[in-house]
């Protein structure tokens, strides 16, 4: 048995000491692959694919042992079940894969090379829309009227808008107050804001599966976090119970924020350039640093 292990290692080392001729394109290829692998590892770390990776590592170790000891039946089964397992993984991780591809699309490679996009406005929604949202959110907070407002950014939320009642109405604080008024047909669920207009009301949002979310937060807040996990939207929640205004972004909730904090988050969401860089590159680090200050701990 010892000889078998030694033989395996010697064969492996003999293969590893072969030094091929390295050309410029090989270096470029290695750099590209390094970057891609780094991004995949980051993605795995931030999603439940981390558990999948752990499972794959255990399986790989098991298969390695089987290869060393020449357990042919196990090797045969492993070889033939790879396709089935890959298909199963794609089905199970479909939401995460979709989100990863959407993020790739968000970056707009061409746009980041070109300094400007002709014919496109610099802001997503006007200052007046921003102020109307702030005004209505805190007015509803004062009156303890529950509300859920999704402000769309780069990722289109058409499929979530389709779960509600189509509106296409110019946003104003009065309209917001009216929509979320108790016992009215449109008060339940979320509204989706695109630009300066309310696209849809009574929309159903995906609930977050995050086990770390405080038990004090009910389904309205969980839906806000869920929506921010699957998109880059800024989701504003007004608690019916406490009147607190919170914002969910990037899978985290910033609970009980002030008027000024909500305004500055909306300013960031408003600028098209800012929102694009807020999900990529070094800005992410700044954003993370910033969010630690006012983020409500979700594990209490
Ligand atoms: N998946 C969802 N999508 C959209 N809206 C939802 C969803 N789930 C719940 N809601 C909204 O949240 C309301 C229920 O809020 P609930 O009291 O459970 O949550 P909460 O987080 O404790 O909020 P509050 O502090 O306002 O009580 C529902 O009436 C509905 O309007």
Automatic annotation (TrEMBL):
Domain DAC intervals: 94-259
Keyword Phosphoprotein: no
Keywords per UniProt: ATP-binding, Cell membrane, Membrane, Nucleotide-binding, Nucleotidyltransferase, Transferase, Transmembrane, Transmembrane helix
Record-annotated membrane-spanning stretches: 12-38, 50-68
EC number: 2.7.7.85
Keyword rRNA-binding: no
EC class: transferase
Subunit structure as annotated in this protein's UniProt entry: Probably a homodimer.
Annotated family: Belongs to the adenylate cyclase family. DacA/CdaA subfamily.
Gene3D superfamilies named among the record's database cross-references: DNA integrity scanning protein, DisA, N-terminal domain
Organism: Suipraeoptans intestinalis
Domain of life: Bacteria
InterPro entries named in the record: C-di-AMP_synthase (IPR014046), CdaA (IPR034701), CdaA_N (IPR045585), DisA (IPR050338), DNA_integrity_DisA_N_sf (IPR036888), DNA_integrity_scan_DisA_N (IPR003390)
Catalytic activity from the UniProt record: 2 ATP = 3',3'-c-di-AMP + 2 diphosphate
Any GO molecular function: adenylate cyclase activity
Role noted for this protein: Catalyzes the condensation of 2 ATP molecules into cyclic di-AMP (c-di-AMP), a second messenger used to regulate differing processes in different bacteria.
Protein name per Swiss-Prot or TrEMBL: Diadenylate cyclase
GO biological process: cAMP biosynthetic process
